[in-house]
Amino acid sequence: MRRTRAEIQGDDVILxxxxxxxxxxxxxxxxxxxxxxVDFEVADLRKARASQRRLFFALLHDIAEFxxxxxxxxxxxxxxxxxxxxxxxxxxxxxxxxxSVSDANVLLDLVIxxxxxxxxxxxxxxxxxxxxxxYYLYQCCRHRVCTVCGNHADIxxxxxxxxxxxxxxxxxxxxxVMALCRAHHSIIEAIGANRFAQKYHVPxxxxxxxxxxxxxxxxxxxxxxx
Length: 226
Fold this sequence. Notes:
single chain, about 230 residues, mainly alpha, two-stranded antiparallel ribbon, two-stranded antiparallel sheet, about 40% helix, about 10% strand
């Protein structure tokens, strides 16, 4: 993949090419040489962080402890999975890596997906998990795992639903939710959202879920026939 400099002017993105376009090839694939579509990706120039490396190996330790698989084997497995997922890109978390923060986040998401899917307990890596990231909060809701402790969770509505309201008549896609076990649900109700966030170092703003996810995790509501 070649990198190309670009600048934004209003609603327009102007590309500055460092190499000439093969017009014959362009006309072959697009049918014209003066109008065509371009796929582009904004390059992340941030180098993968040491904190991401620590989290990756902490999670590998948790998986190895649960599955009895060697950590070297798991590292190779997830590096290969990353390569397949990104159509051949390679990943490295070494000190002299050329991989970016975004690259490392993709790798970590693959590992976290695996752990949720196979119910691998988060132990050594739990304190390092990026709980402020929406993706992790989404997976906690999707798999009914408490954002705070990792135990089985219910769906807590950050936007409070009145006690007399029929929840099956509520459009839950418009509500912010988070996954909390019974114990931590009781605590947030008792001490309030702000003190809860300070005590457990987790966000309490919640996220919104789509209809498909809400139905999959058993949250019944009025979704307008969707």
